[in-house]
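re the bet — no i am not wrong, look at it urself. input seq straight from the record:
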Amino acid sequence: MNDCIFCKIIKGEISSYKIYEDEKTYAFLDIASDCEGHTLVIPKAHCTNVLDCDVEDIKATIETVQKIAKHYVEDCGYDGVNIVNATGKAAQQSVFHLHFHIYPRKNNDGVDLFPLKDKLDIDMAAVAEKLAIK
């Protein structure tokens, strides 16, 4: 896609701090610099999000996410990772090329990705009925 910033990164038209690359995926540091090692993993084939991604491309992307997460924990001294994806504008997706965020974490690093909110009054049975795949 011509105007996609991630496609431009893959083509080398925009520079990036590459972490990993293979035939189907590309991983690089997020320029947000909001967490040490914040990494984006993308398929090289353009797709908008998990809803329209070819199954082989999403499989390759998840395999790369796992490879990098293991590397960060087993080889780079991090204690864990957060893996985040936003699919669609309502979910706060800001770049419409499928991507997964990997946030390398250390114990007591002060990064809070999951702020607690008050519990909502939800009829869990009704929601489960609505969402169940039949």
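see?? The radius of gyration is 17 Å. told u. also The mean pLDDT is 93. so pay up
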